[in-house]
Amino acid sequence: MQTKVLLVEDDPALSDAVREGLTDEHIDTVVVSNVRDGLEYIRTQRPDAVVLDLMLAGESGFDLLRKVRSQRDQTPILIISALGTTEHRVNGLMAGADDYLVKPFELKELHARIVANIRRNQQQEGPVLTFGPLRLELTTRRAFREGKELKLSPTEISLLELFIRHENQVLSRKMLYHQLWESNWESETNVIEVHINRLRSKLDRGFARALIHTVRGRGYVLSENPPQGAKSAEDLDQESHNPIAS
Questions:
Q1: Which of 7, 15, 69, 206 is packed most tightly, with the most Cβ within 10 A?
Q2: Nearest Cα to 1, choosing from 38, 37, 46?
């Protein structure tokens, strides 16, 4: 899975150069120019790391840093700033930053520091799978959507892991059954439907966008852009109350 980094920088020339340089190193880089958009992206997309300028228009980078850490979010945050005194660096690190790089800097050093901080964070918390707003910690078997922990059963955790590892792929009931129970497939059983419905009720309901969709005749898919004809739990509920629906 490709590394995903958020760059919070309001200098277009610098942000373009950094994004291009990190893209060349196979890092998917998204740029925002203000604290509000940065906080929203961190909350919903769960980047692997954040590269943060301090001197932004409106709220400062310090405001974003403090808000992220106040939510107990330990996403690695690397400050890039023209403020290069010892006092500035100490203040940034004490506020919760993982690293501090003074402008101007070499892109190779920025890349190396991003990789090092992501590796350190993963070693601390164990391997993590992500998909859009979803985060699954494999060691602790804890799942989150937009930072909110989901109370999932062990089977639901295993089911979610399968979906994330096969994101945007339609998984048949037979495949899911074999992967979860490693036993012979019984086509008449509805055990998969039961677990899918329970997972959906915890994963999708209460959020504006459904992530698990039914593809009739084929199976289920975890996707933010489901294939044509796929239906969410809400769609199926409406159809069950409207027999003439297509």
A1: 7
A2: 46
What's the total number of domains in the chain? 2
Amino acid, res. 198: R
| Structure tokens, 146 | 């937009």
Q: Which of 110, 125, 140 is the last residue of a domain?
A: 125
Q: What's the gap between Cα 7 and its chain centre? A: 15
User: pTM of the prediction?
Assistant: 0.61
Percent composition of the chain: helix, strand, coil (DSSP 3-state, to 5): 40, 20, 35
Claim to verify: residue 141 and residue 85 sit in the same structural domain: no
Tokens of 202: 């915890």
Domain range for residue 182?
A: 130-240
User: Tokens standing for 151?
Assistant: 């109370």
245 part of a folded domain: no
For residue range 150-166, what is the model confidence (pLDDT) as tens digits? 999 888 999 999 999 99
Over the stretch 45-102, which tens digit does the pLDDT of each residue have? 889 999 999 999 899 999 999 999 988 788 999 999 999 999 999 999 999 999 999 9
Alpha-carbon distance of 161 to 150, in angstroms, equals 13
